[in-house]
Amino acid sequence: MMRIGILGAGSMAEAMISGLISGNVVRPDQISVINRSDRSKLLYIQDQYGVNVSENKEELLACSDVIILAMKPKDAQEAILSIRPYVKKQLFLSVLAGITIQTIQKLLGKKAPVIRAMPNTSAAIQMSATAISPSEEVTMHQLKIAKHLFETIGMVAVVEEHRLDAVTALSGSGPAYVYYFIEAMEHAASEVGLDKDIAKSLILQTLAGASEMLMQSDKQAAQLRREVTSPGGTTEAGIEKLKDCRFHEAIVACVKKAAERSVELQALVSKEEKKIRKA
Question: Is the pTM of this model over 0.85?
Answer without folding.
Answer: no
